[in-house]
Structure of Peptide transporter PTR2:
Amino acid sequence: MSVHCYQALLLFGYKITQKPGGSPITRVCQVVVAAFRKWHIELPLDASLLYEVDGQNSAIEGSRKLEHTSEFEFLDKAAIISSTDAKSDFSANPWRLCTVTQVEELKILVRMFPVWATTIIFSAVFAQSSVFVEQGMVLDKRVGSFDIPPASLFTFNGISVMIWIAIYDRVLIPIARKFTGREKGFSELQRMGIGLVLSIVTMVSAALVELKRLEIARTEGLIHENVAVPMSILWQIPQYCFAGAAEVFTAIGQVEFFYGQAPDAMRSLCAALALVTVTVGSYLSSIILTLVSYLTTQGGDAGWIPDNLNEGHLDRFFWLMAGISFVNLLVYIGCAMRYKYKNV
C-alpha cells in the first residue's frame, strides 16, 4: 500500500477526543514542534489528506476553518497523520499532530511578518520628535508678542490628524472608491504605503528647514554662537502636519491590517503586534542616534548633532532618515506586492 493511500485511510478513520487549545503562542509552538518531529515524513500530494476536523467549525475555539495554502510547505508536516498518531489511542497530542487551520494560523503570521518589520522604521522615524524640538530651540520663537515653546508645535500634529481623518473619510475614500471599486477606497496595504511616503516627505521638509536655518546662521555669522537664528519657528509647521498625515494613513492602516488579516483566535495578539512596533521603533531610533553621534564625532569633529546646532549638520541627519525611509518603502512595496491575503 502506498504512503498516500495509507494516509488517506488513517484520515478517514482518525478521530480525536481533544481539541488543540492554549494561547496563540502555545499553538504556534505546537505547529513548529510537530513539523520538526515529522521533518522526515513525505507530504501527501493531495492536501486533503492533511488532518482537519469535520464540520464547519475548526478545532480552535472561536476560530473559523482556514483553507490550506501551498506556501511554507514544511509547516504542513505538522498536519500529517502518521502511523504513530493512529496508534495513540485516538487521543490528540497537539505537539505531534495539528489541524490544517492551526498550521495556517502560523503561515498567516509568517506572511505578515515582513509587513510588520517594515513598519518599525516608520515608528523609528516618528520617534525623532525630540530632534524636532531641538531644531525649534534654535529658531526664532517669537510670534508677535508671544514666545512659542518648541514642544507646543506638536499641537499642529494633532490638528493635522483630525483634519486628515475628515479629508480621508469625506474626500479621499469616495474618490478612491470610483477607481478601485473597494468599499473602503484603499486597501490596508495601500493606506500604509501612502503613510510611508508621507513619512519621507516629513523628513525632507525638516531637512529643508534646517538647510535654510544653517544658511541664515552662516550669513549672520552665528555659526559659533549657540543662539537662535532669525528664522521663524513657524517654518516647522509643515513637517508636523506631514507627520500627522502619515500617522493617519500608516498607523490606522496598520491596526486595521493586522486585525483584519489575523486568524480569528489571534486578533488580539496581532493587534498588539502593531503596537509593539512603536516600542521597537523607539529602541531603533535610540540606536540610530547613538551611532550617528559616535560616527560623526570621530577625529574631534563637532558631529551632526552637537550641543551648538549652528556648528552641526542636523540637516544630514534628516536626509539620512529620509534615505532610510525610502529604502524601507521599497522593501515594503516588495512585501506588499507578494503578500497573499488569508483564505477563509
